[in-house]
Design goal:
Keywords: Transferase. It comes from Comamonas suwonensis. This is Glycosyltransferase family 2 protein. The chain has seven helices and eight strands. It has one domain: Alpha-Beta Complex (Spore Coat Polysaccharide Biosynthesis Protein SpsA, Chain A). It has a five-stranded mixed beta sheet with strand order 1-4-3-2-5, with helices on both faces. Strands 6-7-8 form a three-stranded antiparallel beta sheet, with helices on one face. Helix 2 links the parallel strand 2 and strand 3. By secondary structure, the chain is α/β, with parallel strands linked by helices.
């Protein structure tokens, strides 16, 4: 007779703010394609995190490369311990683009990889003013999406701007836009996956 594991999952009270905890990990971040002078001068960094999703990453990169942005842009791929050979899916013209930087490390989860991406930008890209974070299944909604996010951030003199995107599932871009809505972003249970 199998026991239910439901009794092992503690009930979480999301009505009060959570107490922050510190979890240290050895990230072992290293560059697989080092930043070129062009990338180091970029004011806007499009950061893409992935783990064993090279086909989606390639499509996300193509979406990012199609952005019409007036500022200097670089593209930072951060791999989270993917299987060997994942870079073979990126074609040579893409790999030879001086704006493309590729780094790898051990992060343990998508949120930790995204945080490591922000840390890496802070440490290695001195001209960066904005970071657009994407996952391998994300696509920009239009070719002007990134420019509009930068314009909105600059006009509002704010620290961050949250935008919307398209999602790709099994190679098919879903027709509906994945909107960033305040009610979703403030729903702690939904964000926690409950």
């Amino acid at each position: 007779m199998k026991k239910s594991l439901n009794h092992c999952i503690p009930s979480v009270d999301w009505s009060e703010p959570r107490v922050p905890s510190v979890k240290l990990t050895h990230r072992n971040i290293h560059f697989l394609k080092v930043p070129d002078k062009v990338a180091l001068k970029a004011q806007v960094i499009v950061g893409l995190t992935h783990r064993n999703h090279p086909e989606g990453l390639r499509e996300a990169l193509h979406s990012a490369l199609q952005q019409d942005v007036s500022q200097a842009v670089a593209f930072l791929v951060l791999d989270d311990s993917s299987d060997e050979g994942w870079m073979r899916t990126l074609e040579n013209p893409l790999l030879s683009d001086p704006r493309l930087v590729i780094a790898a490390g051990r992060f343990g989860s998508p949120p930790q990889a995204r945080n490591a991406l922000l840390d890496l930008v802070d440490q290695r890209f001195p001209s960066a003013r904005w970071v657009a974070r994407m996952d391998a299944d994300d696509r920009f909604a239009t070719t002007g999406s990134l420019q509009e996010l930068v314009r909105a951030g600059d006009a509002s003199n704010c620290s961050f701007v949250i935008g919307s995107n398209h999602l790709s599932v099994n190679g098919t871009v879903l027709p509906s836009i994945n909107f960033a809505r305040a009610e979703t972003l403030q729903d702690r249970q939904r964000l926690a996956g409950c």
